[in-house]
Amino acid sequence: MDHMEYGLEFCEKTLIPTIKNVVDKYVGTSYSIEKKGQGNFVTTVDKKIEQELIDRFQQLVPGSGVIAEETEAQLEQKFNWIIDPIDGTTNFINGLQYAVSVALVYEQPDHILLGVVYNPKDDIWYYACKGKGSYILEKGMVTQLRVRTFPPDEGIVVFGMPYDRRKTGKILDIVQKYYAIASDMKRIGPSSLDICLVASGKAKMYLELDLNLWDISAGILILTEAGGTYVQKGDLYIFGNDDIRNIKGAP
Predict the structure, then answer these.
(1) Would residue 133 count as lying in a domain?
(2) Residue 151 domain-assigned?
(3) Is 17 among the domain residues?
């Protein structure tokens, strides 16, 4: 199939129902927890969701490869799925907000065709198709997303904490600098949902260190199709509108 065939209709009628079916199958079942590092966990639910999504997606797009958080194999095919089966596993374990993040890319990781971020806790879907806009599906209603332009010293800035505790001081120093251009600073949820907060105009920007493809690929398409952008400065990622490129005094 040509990559143009993987559009909004494919996303809404095939991809979203597939993800919903798999998540509903495993969330709510008993699970065990493995500790990968301080504050970094994986559950058997992560692994089961990821494997079944891989199996189903490769049936939907024959010959497609996979880049996923819990699967060692990272294939490079014409089409590749980038999957985070549970973004925010610590939140999931503790009954808080988490997400399932899925992107379909064509040939290169930055050529993102489709992006879906699902918030099962609130049953909210964010999704985008390259060149066709980004949307939120909530309570049966679909609304197109747009980033907001905030006054210079207003708006909520969202940030994440790094797994590497040696970088705690670095992110807190960055947060302190950005506080000058914010109404408030918030630590809210997993990275994919934080990007969607910016895309939906609820947050001014989102900051985090050391992100991976599965953390951000779907969110990047949702954000850019909503009129937003992102920059990477070393290990720091900043998601917002075009104003983020011209913030004085920021890192």
Answers:
(1) yes
(2) no
(3) yes
Domain edge (last residue) among 144, 172, 203: 144
Q: Cβ atoms within 10 A of the Cβ of 220, count?
A: 25
Amino acid at 76: E
CA atoms within 13 A on the CB side of 117: 31
Residue where a domain terminates, one of 86, 110, 144:
144
Indicate the Cα dihedral angle 56, 223, 24, 187, nearest 10°.
Answer: 140
Residue 4, pLDDT above cutoff 60: no
Site of tokens 């699967």: 71
Render pLDDT for 217-251 as a digit per residue (tens, 0 to 9). 999 999 999 999 999 999 999 999 877 766 654 55
Is residue 134 over pLDDT 70?
yes
Same domain for 117 and 161? no
Cβ–Cβ < 8 Å for 211, 233 = no
Nearest to 191 by CA among 118, 88, 104, 109: 88
140 is in which domain, residue-wise?
A: 3-144
Residue 159: what residue type? F
Evaluate if residue 116 carries a pLDDT over 80.
yes
Residue 5 phi, psi (nearest 5): -80, -15
Q: Which two tokens stand for residue 62?
A: 């024959």
Phi, psi dihedral angles at 194 (to 5 degrees): -65, -40
Q: How many helices (H) and strands (E) does the chain have?
A: 7, 14
Q: Please state which of the ranges 137-141, 167-171, 240-244 shows the lowest mean pLDDT.
A: 240-244
The DSSP annotation for 201-239 comes to TS-SEEEEES--HHHHHHHHHHHHHTT-EEEEETTEEEE
CATH of the domain at 53: 3.30.540.10
